């Protein structure tokens, strides 16, 4: 026995008595079984040298199995540091490493982790906020792969003065409202015509309210059609792909905010509108050309022939495009309704879009020959972006956004539908040209100011919401939220024009020439050619700037560069925190159970 403070120990049967150095204070019950475990398992020669102050000299595995909870946790950390593949960690786990070396490696590890995290956050920011890049496609696209634009033509002359003189009616309404003597009121029929025509005239003429707040949409359209210039006197000659065509066969009547217009190469209302939006007010075509071989996202099918619908050209140049010869009677020109500019408005748009002539158009004046050369601008989107949210890629695929009245999604159709909904909420009615169902009231002449103000208010609301919610490189979400279509076609045009003296081309010496001159007496004319400028064009393409693979590769490169971390290192960490830890805990529990059974047996 040791000469230091000891107490008697009763040996168990079959065992020799062993003197053990004990602390001054009695051991707690929790520490007694741990000490007994060490004493029972260690060799007798080494058992006598073990004390409460010598944990660091005990083997790591034995500390995990027999030591206290703190010893076991410390041993597991040492074990991980010894076996991990992450650079620098092993130097922190070595038991006899000097404190200065430990501080050095701690500083190096902290600096590496900080730099790695900072650069990884930069990559995350690019991946999260700038996932899309717009670049040129790998090859050019021939013009025959896209449809020829829909060409919507609206004459500036809204009435035939022989049927309805808007200028005289306007002054008559103002004078009667101001109680000018000798001025009588308009007849009921004149009021109906005035209420319809004033809706397509300049907004500053809406200062005099006349008529009802709501009317039937068909009444307005019928009135505009009744007084509008005769089709055959306006569209005199047409050619398509250098082949003479009857203008009435290739141009179809459409209703726009500019009144009654005619469109070439537009899809039929049955394809543009959903069932709810197909109302008698918009159905004017007896024949329906269905786009069986074309859609916006996929283009023409492989089975499409050289004359599908919508029409396409086979090459560039004026001979392969559309030619129009148009005219107007000088006697019908009205400077009050549309201002002192006469001629036509022409809008080029995608066949599936509803024409909104007041937003963007080309003006075709009389006595001019105008050449419009088209340069298509197409943006497509890669399939890799389909799993992104629309606000991240800043566009909608066709099946992602359903409109109430339109079959085909486009930014233009979406904005028009949103304007219709906003106008209905504000004014209790919609403009006659807006999409609607049969139950929606149509605004009359008395509601002109209201729906004009509604359009201005909607623009202001969209601006404020977009500005408040806009991100660094993304458009802010608004109530309309009309993002562009992921596959969109725009037709940019270059215009050149020259004076056109149509009388000089008429041979007045022949009977036919004299007849033609008499027929065109009092007319002004214009000639327009619309065609593609080049045979091929470059397509833009949205694609992933940082895909999932790129993001993982960049993050993995930074982790490997600064810390030597690989995927297996992460698996290794997870293994030590789960499988290895659970295994050690089960082993400790089993050992404790065995020792308790041995103690109880000895007792």
Automatic annotation (TrEMBL):
It comes from the Eukaryota. GO terms for cellular component: dendrite membrane; monoatomic ion channel complex. Its main location: membrane. One of its GO terms (molecular function) is ligand-gated sodium channel activity. The chain crosses the membrane at residues 558-582. PROSITE patterns: ASC (PS01206). It is a multi-pass membrane protein. It is found in: Membrane. Residues 1-20 are annotated as: Disordered. Keywords: Ion channel, Ion transport, Membrane, Sodium, Sodium channel, Sodium transport, Transmembrane, Transmembrane helix, Transport. InterPro entries: ENaC, ENaC_CS. One of its GO terms (biological process) is larval locomotory behavior. Belongs to the amiloride-sensitive sodium channel (TC 1.A.6) family. PANTHER family: AMILORIDE-SENSITIVE NA+ CHANNEL-RELATED, AMILORIDE-SENSITIVE SODIUM CHANNEL-RELATED. This is Pickpocket protein 28.
């Amino acid at each position: 026995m040791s000469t230091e403070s000891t107490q008697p120990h009763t040996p168990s049967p079959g065992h020799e008595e062993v003197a053990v150095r004990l602390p001054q204070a009695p051991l707690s019950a929790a520490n007694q079984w741990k000490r007994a475990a060490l004493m029972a398992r260690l060799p007798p020669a080494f058992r006598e040298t073990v004390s409460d102050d010598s944990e660091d000299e005990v083997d790591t595995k034995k500390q995990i199995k027999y030591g206290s909870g703190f010893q076991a946790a410390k041993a597991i950390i040492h074990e991980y540091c010894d076996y991990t593949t992450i650079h620098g960690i092993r130097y922190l786990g070595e038991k006899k490493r000097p404190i200065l070396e430990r501080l050095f490696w701690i500083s190096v590890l902290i600096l590496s982790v900080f730099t790695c995290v900072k650069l990884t956050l930069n990559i995350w920011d690019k991946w999260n906020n700038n996932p899309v890049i717009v670049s040129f496609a790998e090859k050019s696209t021939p013009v025959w792969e896209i449809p020829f634009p829909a060409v919507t033509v609206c004459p500036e002359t809204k009435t035939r003065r022989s049927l309805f003189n808007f200028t005289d009616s306007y002054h008559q309404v103002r004078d009667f409202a101001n109680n000018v003597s000798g001025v009588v009121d308009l007849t009921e029929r004149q009021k109906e015509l005035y209420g319809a025509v004033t809706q397509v005239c300049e907004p500053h003429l809406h200062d005099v309210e006349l008529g009802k707040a709501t009317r039937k949409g068909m009444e307005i359209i019928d009135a505009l059609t009744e007084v509008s210039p005769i089709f055959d006197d306006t569209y005199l000659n047409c050619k398509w792909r250098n082949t003479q065509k009857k203008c009435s066969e290739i141009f179809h009547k459409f209703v726009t905010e500019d009144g009654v217009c005619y469109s070439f190469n537009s899809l039929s209302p049955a394809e543009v509108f959903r069932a709810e939006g197909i109302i008698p007010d918009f159905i004017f075509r007896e024949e329906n050309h269905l786009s069986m071989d074309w859609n916006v996202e996929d283009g023409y099918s492989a089975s499409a022939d050289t004359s599908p619908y919508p029409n396409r050209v086979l090459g560039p140049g004026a001979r392969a495009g559309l030619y129009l010869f148009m005219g107007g009677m000088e006697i019908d020109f009205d400077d009050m309704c549309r201002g002192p500019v006469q001629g036509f408005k022409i809008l080029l748009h995608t066949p599936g879009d509803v024409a909104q002539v007041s937003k963007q158009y080309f003006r075709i004046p009389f006595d001019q020959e105008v050449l419009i050369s088209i340069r298509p601008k197409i943006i497509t989107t890669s399939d890799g972006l389909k799993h992104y949210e629309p606000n991240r890629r800043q566009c909608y695929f066709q099946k992602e956004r359903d409109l109430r009245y339109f079959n085909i999604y486009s930014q233009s159709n979406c904005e028009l539908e949103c304007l219709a909904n906003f106008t209905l909420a504000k004014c209790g009615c919609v403009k006659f040209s807006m999409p609607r169902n049969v139950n929606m009231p149509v605004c009359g002449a008395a509601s002109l100011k209201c729906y004009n103000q509604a359009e201005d208010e909607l623009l202001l609301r969209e601006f404020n919401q977009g500005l408040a919610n806009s991100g660094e490189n993304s458009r802010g979400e608004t109530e309309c939220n009309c993002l562009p279509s992921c596959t969109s076609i725009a037709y940019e045009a270059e215009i050149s024009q020259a004076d056109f003296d149509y009388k000089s081309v008429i041979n007045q010496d022949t009977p036919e020439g004299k007849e033609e001159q008499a027929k065109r007496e009092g007319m002004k004319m214009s000639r327009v050619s619309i065609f593609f400028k080049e045979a091929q064009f470059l397509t833009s393409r949205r694609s992933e700037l940082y895909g999932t693979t790129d993001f993982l590769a960049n993050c993995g490169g930074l982790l490997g560069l600064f810390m030597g971390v690989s995927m297996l290192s992460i698996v290794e960490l997870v293994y030590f925190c789960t499988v290895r830890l659970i295994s050690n805990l089960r082993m400790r529990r089993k050992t404790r159970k065995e020792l308790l059974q041995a103690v109880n047996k000895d007792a």
